[in-house]
Amino acid sequence: MKTAIVTDSTAYIPKEVRDKWNIHMIPLHVIFGNEVYQEEVDLDWQQFYQMVKTNELPTTSQPPIGQFVELFERLSKDYDAVISIHLSSGISGTYQGAVTASTMVDGIKVFPFDSEISCMVQGFYALEAAEWASRGEEPEKILARLEELKKDARAYFMVDDLSHLQRGGRLSGAAAFIGSLLQVKPLLHFVDKVIVPFEKIRTRKKALKRIADLLGEDAKLGGHYQAVIIHANREEEANQWKAELEKLYPNVEFSIGYFGAVIGTHLGEGSMGMGWIKK
């Protein structure tokens, strides 16, 4: 069976990597005033962080269902099935849009997959699925592999300012948590598909060390891990952190990712995080 792999723009897989693995991408939208941009198509992360310096913070929206239908119908000409991998259904309706669209197309079986996370950890699922699909594996077997990866997937991130998340309603229990903050760097993570506080830490340096220690707790158990350092317009800091971590954890393969326009709208510039899966 020939299976196509689809993900959305919040996986932030570079275009050359998507092209190499034949991963199809459906963009979420970023709205500055009356201008609508397709993330990762009309607007990359560098352009976004420049624009927010001189514009009001934008709003974001999920892809229209019609865009899903159009893509699935196009894929039906060359594929028997689609696995459509999306950011957590707890913070966006994108996954549900794929579910609805899957009932509206004929001639192809669509398997929507809720990553329950976002950014390049979501991208890891898409890349794994694409590798398995390239070998001709059945979609049910690929989905079982993704569920297996999900058991060991972790992601923690630090934000400089929680007001973006509070305003967008992406942080569960945000009001009470923000009320208790006194110049701390909160660590956040996903639990049951939504973003919740993990710990409150006093400084940025200590917050990043805490994330590294959490990776270390997993890495010392043995096995090979794939990790991504994710930054919101802090590329130099991310590269420095990567160099430090590579010395500490030789059994972890590190890469650099980013919080693009949609996720960056809700986290704010300066955020840093790391996610990993066990290979």
From TrEMBL:
The keyword Oxidoreductase does not apply. The keyword Cell wall biogenesis/degradation does not apply. This is DegV family protein. NCBIfam families: DegV. Pfam families: DegV (PF02645). One of its GO terms (molecular function) is lipid binding. SUPFAM superfamilies: DAK1/DegV-like. InterPro entries: DegV (IPR003797), DegV_C (IPR043168), DegV_domain_contain (IPR050270). Keywords: Lipid-binding.
